[in-house]
Amino acid sequence: MPPLASLKVSPSGAEIAFVDSGVPPGAKSYTTIFAVHGMGFTHAIFQKIVNVASAQGIRFVAIVRRDYPGSSLFDEEETAAIGNVQLADEWVKARGQELAHFIADFVQKYSLPPISDDGKTGGITLLSWSLGTYVCISTLAHVTSLPDNVRDCLTSRLRAFVVHEPPPFSLGYTMPVKDWAPIIDNTIPMEYRFPFWGQWLTSFFEHPESSKRDVELLNYVLPSTDKVPVIFSMSKSEIEEVVYGDNFMRELGVVFNFGTQLKANYQKALFDKETRDIFPNMKVSYLTGEWTVSWAYASMWSVQDDAKAFNMEKFIDFKIIKGSNHFVQWEQPEQTLKLYAECSGL
């Protein structure tokens, strides 16, 4: 994987690091996918996709979120604000604005091609995976607050938004009543909870009755024995690069304290007519793995219900990725990138 680079972005002046697959060889026009990682797993979870992107004619940029190694950590004031619900609006908005400025600066610095006249190439796709979704929806929800040049960059070039398995709390929803994870099990010694969580989350879970759309019937504890957890295919050095838990409690603080604002942003980003009008080229896809953790199904069903309630069912393309779990980008990078390209209208 290419080395980390970084850009200093407004309005916070934070350094945002990234890994860039670069211009596809011989490409006069190409689409760039900006990927935003989740919680407990870094940008390196996309490293296998970065390595195959050029061969598929795509530029893939894996962004390092704030408070992860390479990008600026939250300062004392930003960290303290996570516990203050009165500051939720501005705190979450700032994360979205940082991402918007990063993308606009990247587009300008590297002269990314615009959407072609026939719409078949060029432009950018915003890809959110897992908890990283809250940052991306904040970018879309607060686009009108951006400087003209940043807003115009996004609105003219954004061809797709791909939402890949967000947990319910990244959208402002509570977790299902039937929910379990090693990280919240008080019977497990503290020092083992995060490592156990990483192994458990990368497992595969069978949901034979998922077609009934009932969270009570989902398998929310026991992994399948048919497939080995994805983390077991990683080397020790890869695990050290991919897994990161030093900021885990701060991440949980965001989703537990800022739920009201996260839900407002989610609805504004996906279901608001003004947002749709601002992003006329934006195709929205929602991806969920067939054998993923139970809360991913709960999230998808909530979004489907909201799409119906807002009369926006035709606006979001929901896809089930057969045989996959929460880490399909690591297990099947070439196939996953092809799916991301399809969701981008390529």
What features would you describe in this structure?
Residues 35-336 form the AB hydrolase-1 domain. This is AB hydrolase-1 domain-containing protein. The chain contains 13 helices and eight strands. It is of the alpha/beta class and 346 residues long. The protein has a single domain, classed as Rossmann fold (3-Layer(aba) Sandwich). An eight-stranded mixed β-sheet has the order 1-2-4-3-5-6-7-8, sandwiched between helices. α3 crosses α5. The longest helix has 22 residues, at 88-109. The radius of gyration is 19 Å and the shape is globular. The two termini are 24 Å apart. The mean pLDDT is 96.
Mind sketching the topology for me?
Elements lengths: L4 E4 L6 E6 L10 E6 L10 H7 L4 E6 L12 H6 L6 H22 L14 E6 L3 H9 L6 H10 E7 L25 H12 L34 H7 L5 H10 L1 H13 L1 H6 L4 E7 L4 H16 L6 E6 L6 H4 L1 H11 L3
Parallel strand pairs: 3-4, 3-5, 5-6, 6-7, 7-8
Antiparallel strand pairs: 1-2, 2-4
Protein name: AB hydrolase-1 domain-containing protein
Pfam families: Abhydrolase_6
InterPro entries: AB_hydrolase_1 (IPR000073), AB_hydrolase_fold (IPR029058)
